[in-house]
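This protein record is not my work; I was only asked to verify it. Where you disagree with what is written, explain briefly why. This is what I was given:
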Amino acid sequence: MLKNKKILIMGIRNKWSIAYGIAKSAYENGAKLIFTFADENNKEKVEDLVKEFEGSKVYLLSDASQDELVKETFTKIKEENGKVDGIVHAIAHANTEDLHNDFIYTSKEGYAHAVDVSSYSFVLVARIAKELDMLNENASLITLTYYGSTKVLPGYNVMGVAKAALEASVRYLAENLGKENMRVNAISAGPIKTLSAKGIKDFSSILTVIEEKAPLHKNVTIEQVGNVATFLLSNMSQAVTGQVIYADNGYNIMG
């Protein structure tokens, strides 16, 4: 489905991450992969992680919410790889105290940080990629969101607000880039045991609820989310843009 397509995956951390599941599916479907990671201290770990994706390249981007840093990294990526056919934005962060305390106690700095890193960074990525003429025709941009953007989930707090902003950004970006025949979508994955999920209080209880109430009575895997991403990155989804696609075994439809 992705033969000869170059896909940039931003935010890979380890083999349990959704970004890794997307990379695995994309690679198995023929994509050539490019990665960015945020922590220079983890460079060797990330390079070792992506060895199985033959021919892939890795680039440091310490803060995807900073205009100059994104421009610098994207310029280097384009110079060394040419244009890309897809970008996967798997970047989000909120301060621990803003996830553990009641939402009403979110600080101004914590609020701005969550929105900058988790939402604005996707807008910035799209803009810089467009300005650098980095995207091939029919390019597809994907970001990751979660059910907490539309429902109150204990412990998700300011991240829910940031994801709501991200989903609105997807719709506006889809309209803007649609003029150039490019697509923008979000995947709302069910809860998965990732490193980021450990910051959510009582996360294990959420997994139990999904198994009990979702129509398919099981939790989703990174491989399943990866396959949804491959579909959205492929030509099979050319009529799909501006959407939030749920990959949660149907949990979101339940009352």
Observations:
- The longest helix spans residues 108-131.
- The radius of gyration is 17 Å.
- Residues 6-253 form a domain with the Rossmann fold fold (CATH 3.40.50.720).
